[in-house]
Fold these 2 entries.
Entry 1:
Amino acid sequence: MSCSVFAATPQYGGTLTTVPGVGLAPPSAMNGFNPLLTSSAYDSEAEGLMYQPLLWINRQFKIDYGLSVARAIVVGPEHRTFTIRLSKGWKWSDGVPVTAADVAYTYHMILRLGPKFPGYASGGIPGEVAALTVVNPYEIRVVTKRPVNPTWFELSGLNQLVPYPAQVWNKYSVNQMVEQMTNLNFFQVVDGPFRLESFHPGRYVSMVPNRRFSGPDKPYIHRVIFRFIHSPASVFFALKSGTIQLGNLPAPLYPARHQLKGDRLFTTGPPWGFNYLGFDFDNPHIAFVRDPLVRQAMMHAINQDLFIRILGYGHGVRAFGLVPGVPPTFLSPEAKSLLSQGAYDPALADELLGRAGWRMGPHGIRIKDGHRLAFTLYLPPGTIRGPTLLAEMLAKVGIEVRMREKPFNEIFAQISDPSNRHWQAVYLAWSQSAYPTGGSIFKCGGTQNNYHYCSKKMDALSDKIRIQPGLQALYRFQNYFTEQQPVIVLPNMKIFVEAALQLHGLSRAFSPLGGFNPQFIWISRG
């Protein structure tokens, strides 16, 4: 990340207007604010400002206890006991201390919600837990059913136990909480740097500082507004008119960045996750995706360097697996080698499709048993360039892609509906946890597995990540994933962000995990 304008003394005050997804993804709307019930990255952006994490993960993928509610984790000698000690300095905005009871409340709500909890089963919560005990007001002990990989369990499991205000929320049933998803009164007690001020469905959310925030970085700005702008191009014109002061510059408009006179450009990312072409493995009309040879052929048919050159103007990195390449903290040696060499090989793609029984038809589309090698791709607004390029590459090896643009919320609703077997393919992205295993997205019957992919071998390799210390189990899992391509992984682009010249502190505002932290931003005047 780079940032060029500097002013020596931070100032308080001012309003920052931006969009949901800034520094992370194309813009969309926020639809709810209960982190126990929402899974959208856009909703999580607001939720993360209201509730301080139990464990703050820094840029080196280590726990920063200075910004965490926890002050230490003591791991038992057999890697089965994790004693979490809380700092005594954190308080809710109503003056009540943040205690172990709030962490225990979150855990018991996860048990109560079951698969309705967005991160259910990710990081071993609650499946790996034999018992969670409140030792005293500032200490919780978690005992696992078997020895676990401590790094994985802390970064992907315990990290989910964000404390929520038990003294307020425990009076509500789950159904009542669902009904309160956008009720501002429900969310007035917070321990994060901001609280909700107003929500106007379809228009914007405004947040103001939590004046009783007990953390070390109290917000400088007096208000942050997230305007709901539904196309990347509209973000450009909002930046140009000054309607917003911070937003992603759409890559197609990168050459027009000089038109934004009062702004400066910096890059962030790539996001900690992966872009992908995903399929519904249960849809009989595209049964061909169940054949690994077809999926491998797609991987070799995609010229990732061309993707990066055209879509990201050279600002991006190749990606063939679910573990991000930047930074390369968790990459296997095989993944590093593949990333350096690339995988583009259309001749090999042709060979693989031939071995799978697909022969070139009269119109350049492959045919097998009277069926065309074709699928319909849903894509969010403003992303047409990537799928168009993808379709052209796949067409060269005889695969037809039909594109349908739909709002992100509609796509997400369709693929997450377990009874919907009508969709075929999607062009989306997935955010990773700090320990990048993909969570339950590829696990047989996983709560986040909207693609109905199932591999017993992949599940077994994933399970070993949970119990074996070190990175070797993760290496074996990611290598098998790359070989199988349960989704076709696409290159990961850096994100261009435009900021008004008056904004400062941006280098701390965007985390490597895709979080947006406006408490570090201040606005100069005069």
Entry 2:
Amino acid sequence: MSFDGVFTHAMISELRTKLIGGRVSKISQPYPNEVIITIRANRKNQPLLLSAHSSYARAQITNIPYSNPKTPTNFTMMLRKYLESGQLVAIDQIDNDRIINFSFLTRNELGDEQPLILSLEMMGRYSNCLLVNPTNDKVLDTIKHISSDQNRYRMLIPGATYRQPPAQDKLNPFTDTTDAFKSLLSEFPNKDVLAKELQNRYQGLAGQSSLDLATALHADTKNLDSSWKKFFTQFDTPVPTILSGKKLDFSAIPNVELTTGQSFDSLSEMLDTYYLDKANKDRVQQQGSHLIRVVKNELKKNRGKQKKLEKTLKNTETADLLRVQGELLTTYLHLVKQGITEISLPNFYDNEKEMTIPLSNQISPSKNAQKYFKKYQKQKNAVIFVNEQLLLNQKEINYLEEIQSEIELAEPKDLPDIKIELQQQGLLKEQKLNKNKKAIKVKLSKPDEYYATDGTLISVGKNNLQNDQLTMKTANKSDIWLHAKNIPGSHVIIHSPDPSDETVTEAANLAAYFSKYRQSASVPVDYIQVKRIKKPNGSKPGFVVYEGQNSTFITPDLQKIMAMRRK
């Protein structure tokens, strides 16, 4: 199920229960197309996420912590100016469409009451978030500015007259009294065809919703009115579930065809889990595109170098043959005549079998023998050099693959640390200098913190610099260190010298999840005291060695990790 009109209907019911009557206490815009409005309601701060993302547009209460940019955007400043301390008085949906209007009651500079509407339009690449003054229908600001050149029907810029998106000639399934679905059922008895016709006739039905509705109508054709009412009543008391099929999907109602899934207490909690990886990956791809490109190019270059070195090493396999040929020529030099181009001699290394040896007719027999010994020595030296280069180059490839894995697992807030590391390793240009021509110091972000069931603090480094800082400097020598075995991943520290078995298991779940094998069913995790961790001199960031560890196997579980976010 997508975030279509019927899902929007269900989400609005949830938001009304938790937010109506609350006041705006904080406004931030952590990402270009997403704004978070913290509303104080029922003695609790509720972070309302409004996303105008082209792929993940949605409205929900989120418990995922976001970091704010140092400089607020113009849209953020406008929202703060007009909405801070304002009261949320209504949340409405426009005709079962993917449009939600949040109505606020604020006061203007003169202290007079002023109604304002924050409208979220969830329409794919046309998604937008607008602040509108309903008294004069003027747009105060939008998260995306749309000029008349981009859209002739309506401009979405500050000062423009607000116009709703063009209405579709469809019926609202929650208020329709025409019973048009009955004629559609008789005209299109095939379930799949009926689903498409329902989608064309009724507002707010995406593909899965219309198919679920068609399935419900087919299940009881004798009581169509009851089936219709029962289907849409479900969205007033949703059962939030992430469904397991060919691919993960979410739903606000039970799905008869996909019985396996994970249930949640609220739609917002479900969306937090569903979009956590999807949205983060998208943001990392956008914000870290330069880092991704640099690492990808360096990997390509080093892998190409590795192939060339392996080819060179293969060419040196003839070194022993050259030595034998030189020794045979030296032994039987008296048989070698000047000017011949080859000679067959008995090979005393192979039961006196004849060996044909090419010769140069331009040089003497003794110089021919010396030529073979020189080639042998050159290839022998090359083998030593090439093996050393292969080892060094493989280490570089392993390091770059670890950086690549870090970026894949990263959250947007982790990218600055990775950028610093790439600069330190000479893979990126050094950061800009300040007026005194000194490098601008950038403070590393702190590792993520989680809490075990018994309250024990567990820290997770999200990149190599954090890992080094956490393991070699922050952690006590008696703390317990964990890491996914022999694969790129986070350093995890249990801040306790003697944690319980349950705490070790919970920390191992973190180590497994924040590793390259996040999607695996069983991930081996090593754990050992920090005092037994060593970092070799000159080694790459994040690289450590250890002996005497214990190991356990873990199936990564995101739900358990989410529960450990805050105690």
